[in-house]
Protein 1
Amino acid sequence: MINRKIVAEDFKKAEKEQQKIKQLKITDKLEENYRKTYSLTSLSDQAGTKSYYSAFKNLSNLNPENYSITNATFLVENAFFNEDKNFANTYLDPDILYIL
């Protein structure tokens, strides 16, 4: 009877280990697919891509539940212009800036 208990426990341990290994494989596959989809490695050495990487990083940090479309649009447009624009000068009324 004790042997059956030990064998049953060993089977449970082995099954848990197999589940962990299976989950790790699934996670690795998902990460690999993500990298294939979202990596910009083929253009990373070209001039101007630094701005797009910066914009992507900033967009990724926005709260998806509550963000400003104006700010998101500015990040993308500013990447196009190689980050030479200023948000306040681009979108805000100069009279409002004076008050702030």
Protein 2
Amino acid sequence: MDKGRKAKNFTAFIKRNYYGAFIAKWRLYREGGTWDWRIFALALLVTLLYQILSNYANDYGDGVKGTDAKRINEAESRAVASERLQLSR
């Protein structure tokens, strides 16, 4: 897996969506509403895509500012620093 996506952070977004969905489902059942699993699935998808986008934007910003040049060799490789993604200006 590409290190730019940082899979270790993905569990955080799942937990937030799960807790939010649990509260929404509880309130809907209490008030007589119906639960639509498609909204939950869409929320998971959008949050996943935002997480990936923000990780790549952070990686790109570090590459532009030169932060990656100061990293130690033992740190995880970054997509821009390892030249898997090319900066174009």
